[in-house]
Amino acid sequence: MNGIANVGGGVGVDVGMGGGDANVDLGGGGAVGGIHDGRIGGGTVGETEAENRATVSVGMAVTLGALTMTFAAVLLAYAIVRAQAPAWPPPGERGPPSAWPWPIAATVVVLAGSVAMFMAERQRRPQRTLAGTVGPSARLTRALIGAAAAGGTFIVIQTTAWIWLTRAGFRPDSGIVASVIYALTMFHALHALAALVALTPLLIRAARRRPIPRSALTAVSSFWHLVTIVWIVVFLAVFVA
Fold this sequence. Notes:
- There is one protein chain.
- The chain has 241 residues and is mainly alpha-helical.
- It folds into 2 domains: 2-40, no CATH class; 45-240, Four Helix Bundle (Hemerythrin (Met), subunit A) (Up-down Bundle).
- 63% of the residues lie in helices and 11% in strands.
- The chain has a 3-stranded mixed β-sheet with strand order 2-1-3, with no helix packed on it. Strands 4-5 form a two-stranded antiparallel sheet. The protein has a two-stranded antiparallel sheet with strand order 6-7.
- The longest helix is centred in the N-terminal third of the chain and has 40 residues, at 45-84.
């Protein structure tokens, strides 16, 4: 009998035993360590990563949609208040002190942050060992640092402006104009802070030369750009119109 033992996926040993043929396959169809045809735990690495990207994409789409509707509702409320007022500022109220350097500086900084995030997305490098990740290149790290610096500077500018306005006698309870300005800018600043917090883990991974999931970078970048767009709308609606 001729016996062929297949161990670990295709290694054959022929043993002559005087007649007949036998095939012995150990390891489950040429599999080693439970890996069947490139599949681990019932799914390939690529399929698992694709599922993760799809989950992150759906979650981020829902989050961005909810935030967009929330900002739209806040801006709509501001538009209604302003439309119903006989004049703007309303009679008996004064507008904010001359604070043009503040919104202009904040606008420049927030745009710089979005540019940095855009550059970070362009530095994505797929890894050979794990599909769906981006390599922490030096350019990617610098772009993420630039975005983080811009986000931090934006929050500092906003906080400094609130302190300056309060000391100038323009407090949240000073009237409708003051309450609107504080409400819109603080609500937006909270989301800018959230974007900065979401960016921090990616920045740490890049600094440690660890791969960054492509889906995570795309999600954070999308959130960051939404925060930028909303600030542009707030800037035009409150400080220009």
